[in-house]
């Protein structure tokens, strides 16, 4: 903290939204009020720029509809009718309900449900895991994002590590594979532009012509879900034309002979019929990728939402091995840096898994709709505690989730900043702090800086941060284990106390002094320049048979591509500039800025259905139906439609989410959700 007048203080913080960029910011505080928030211009990666959402963050902090006090439901579930109660009364009610429930049905009938609504280290996972682990509650598999990609990469590399994204400045070919960088990872774009200034080229592989695809040097509009076939055809061409790095393959990989045999069938002609690209495009792309040095593959979130998402990552990771792209600074593969950051932290000390009740059941968040409909003899969930999440919007099969939330026998508690769609179904709603009001460290999944978030202002109203909520719940449940009451500062010190060389010199004190610090590694660090993959043999696995040591089945062939039912269009979704998943969708003026829900459709698909630009349409399938405005667009290909996700307004002003339409289709591995296996009929609204 530094003061530049008697009253004005400047306090360093960092964004904890579900976004790879993890922007550093500064808050100006006067007389206890935050009066200005701006990006920290000194930060080498985020460079003083906050996105369209967070540049208005103070509107969120001081929004008139922000929750300030605990609430108890007075109307029917979903009606949004509540009365104010005290914290003591709320905690007593929770403890009473939970105690009775544990006695009668067991602790596993309590499900704590949380996701990435806050990505701060301790506000995301710390005392909650200790408390609920100790109580023996059901565990939640938080796999809807990230894990599928990680598992896929692990199948080839043994870990999810990639190059430092800042090293893309050295790349001369950057392949943005299924990622809309300009919208979802905008601080990487200046790095990419720097590479272009030095002759780098950018190719985007994406079924949708996104803003990033439009800004790239080339866009390859593959059919959704066919990416693996394109990757295998690239390998076919690279091997056929002798463009492999034989030395790298021989020293640092295994299974190349089997891979070569396998990709022989994936001719460019076959791949053209599957992917929708031309033979010429595929040939040129493969040769450019194999001959330009350094070449980097940059996937992020898109691919993993296909049912064969893990296989896509597993296959993608073979490409930089056979070309030896890892040898060059700026070459290889760059995905999330999250696991890399966490590998340096003392997460075991933070979460204390040794204190958890053994053998508790795990429930996959993807299946929340079904979980909320479990029969009594299958361990029906009777209490739900939701924090860092808005599952009534963000989970697939939204109508089923909402029907579950309507159950009168389900005791639901929601901790949030706003009366979200999920909170409207709650029995008790507890007010949560914003990022300006609590202490945390935020490990980034988009760069190698570890950042400290200092509270700039006191909690608004009676709001509390997650860690304080769990301390209060532990007390209400009568627990006397001292480690359930550790302060936020103690928790952060534990997490930093790992002895890992990448954290050498990174302490709470040094973070307080500097705000953020780069992980300790050499500036020219390259993870696999000389092999060193995290597999048992230390070699990249180019071909793996079922039943590998990871325990996961590793089929050496691409995952099955779901077949589109006749007459239906495939729905591919993406983020908007104005919302972050469902965050900000409860706030004016963000909601107004985002506008009405529109569906982008190819002109021939629209003509076939006698639809015109601006028509009101209904999208429907087995899961439900959504009203939207038709936007005939050159940005989507035939057979594909696109709508953004988040709680947008439909033509009648109702808040709707795309997950009304998405099924809980499991991914091949990794326990994720194949959101893109979503096929809908589109017709004019009568
Ligand atoms: S949401 Fe992302 S881009 Fe926006 S301020 Fe936060 S970290 Fe930066």
Give the key terms.
686 residues, alpha/beta, Dimethylsulfoxide Reductase, domain 2, Barwin-like endoglucanases, 3 domains, six-stranded mixed barrel
Strand order of the largest sheet: 6-5-18-17-16-7
Overall morphology = globular
CATH architecture of the largest domain: 3-Layer(aba) Sandwich
Instruction: Return the domain count.
Output: 3
Q: What is the straight-line distance between the termini?
A: 60 Å
- At the first level of CATH, the class of the largest domain is Alpha Beta
Contiguous runs where pLDDT drops below 50 for at least 5 residues: 1-5
Oligomer: single chain
- Report the β-strand fraction as a percent range: 15-25%
**Rg, alpha carbons:** 25 Å
Label the structural class: alpha/beta
Give a quick account of the main beta sheet: strands, pairing sense, barrel closure: 6 strands, mixed
Number of helices: 25
Helix content: 25-40%
Overall strand count: 30
In CATH terms, what is the fold-level topology of the largest domain?
Rossmann fold
Which distinct ligands sit in these coordinates?
Answer: iron/sulfur cluster
- Calculate the mean pLDDT score and round it: 93
Structure description:
With 686 residues, the chain is an alpha/beta fold. Strands 6-5-18-17-16-7 form a 6-stranded mixed beta sheet, with helices on one face. A 6-stranded mixed β-barrel has the order 23-27-24-26-25-30. The chain starts with a strand and ends with a strand. Bound molecules: iron/sulfur cluster (SF4). Iron/sulfur cluster (SF4) is lined by residues 15, 17, 19, 21-23, 50-51, 53-54, 186, 580.
